[in-house]
Amino acid sequence: FGVGLIDEISDWTIRRHAWGQSFSALGKEFQGDFDATMGKVRILSGGRIGKFGWKAQFATVEEFVATACAVEVGLSNSYRQQDRPGEFKSDEEAEYDMTSQQLDSLTTFCLTLERPKFVPPIDPTGLRVVLRGNQVFSEIGCAECHTPDLGGVTGLYTDLCLHSLSDPDHNGYVRETEVPLPFGVPELDEWKTPPLWGVADSAPYMHDGSAPTLEAAIQAHGGDARHIRKRFQEGINKQDREALLAFLKALRA
Asked: Which residue, 53, 98, 162, 185, could crosslink 190 as a Cys pair with Cβ 3.0–4.6 Å?
């Protein structure tokens, strides 16, 4: 939902925001604070910026849709042909299963899906809790990566950058060989910050669906977010933790 708005965010906006993160982090380090967060922009072929996919491997909704059709469903199209059986490369001899018009129509449908909404409680007490949760979200540093507004799109909650989400001593990722990753490919523990709008309706969470609840997703954050996880665990009281979760549950699809 709302991917059409993300598609319109300019590459310059994403780069500028990432530079701002870096300058802010360097400023904190000069002051002895080494818990700052810096995102990494993914540069694709032709210098384009990746915005879609868990690894920011697609620059546009059209690329994402075409590849999903070809690779996930086996529908070859004018943009991307399906893979050869048992291989990770396109079958150049595969006939088209979709016309260009069908691909354009499907892409347009995805681009016009309505954006998710912030739906606060109606009762005054519940509203106060949710508004406090929004404050806590920023105070403990969630907004460093889950940026509320980007490129004129409000309530998005992402910087569209790559971040490490695993701790060095327990990263959960094992390389089968010593062959290095190709240049420009994210590390195994690096993931694009997913937008949080609509997050209340998108369980399970994390890239592998391993977190059944929002709290479990927060607890699973390591790497660049380990200091924010620690603040959630130890730096705020139970009331503020519940308020933060109530705020996230107001981000509806």
From this structure: 162
